[in-house]
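In this section we walk through a basic example: taking a raw amino acid sequence and producing a predicted 3D structure, encoded as discrete structure tokens. The instruction is simple. Fold the sequence below.
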Amino acid sequence: MSGNKTICVALDLSKTSEILGMIRLLGDELDMVKLHCDIIEDFDDAFIEELVALKRHHHFRIWEDRKFADIGYIAERQIKNSVFKIEKWADIVSFHAVAGLGSIPKDIGNLSVFLVVEMSNSGNLCGPEYIRRATEIANSNPNITGIVAQHRPDNLGCDKLVISPGVNLTGVTGDKIDQQYDTIENKMFADVYVIGRAITQAEDPKAIFRQLNETIKETKQH
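The resulting token sequence is shown next.
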């Protein structure tokens, strides 16, 4: 991460105009945005062109949070050959650890990988043994630059970035499905905070983004 930029904005939005508009609004303050290309209703080549132009102009990275979880042959084709043309615009992709080390292709161009070690939703199956084995996979692959987790697995010898979703400023502890939220204070272990609806659904997203950045900075200094 560059400087004090520790927020990845989760743009879990369904319209290209909403995504591009939020990027333009936050502009040079961005370091990383997270997309789910397969929930974008009007995804097309024009969107890719505008997205890449904005990325170059504002110098942020794009994480496509597809969470690949198949054999390596299929995962490689999903990245390179799908209608979403992921390798043309993304800098980072995410993988589940469930299919093992061999499921992460060695040839994915300049893309780096975030490995999902632990999820933020209630009822997930990421127990201690799964976390241990997933962390071993992360340590075994130099293309894996970060792990997605709800705790820092210090006792497992992991030296990757720890990326943590599920932050909320308002005290809300979850959504109406199964997502769970926590405070920044309880996530001081993280290197990167993935924050979505707290920013994108705010009346003034830029002000909330700046408030969150300042809160993180102040909390880490104490």
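Looking at the output, two observations stand out. The chain has a mean pLDDT of 90. The beta strands are 7-10, 32-35, 61-68, 92-96, 112-116, 144-148, 161-165, 192-195. In the next section we compare this with other chains.
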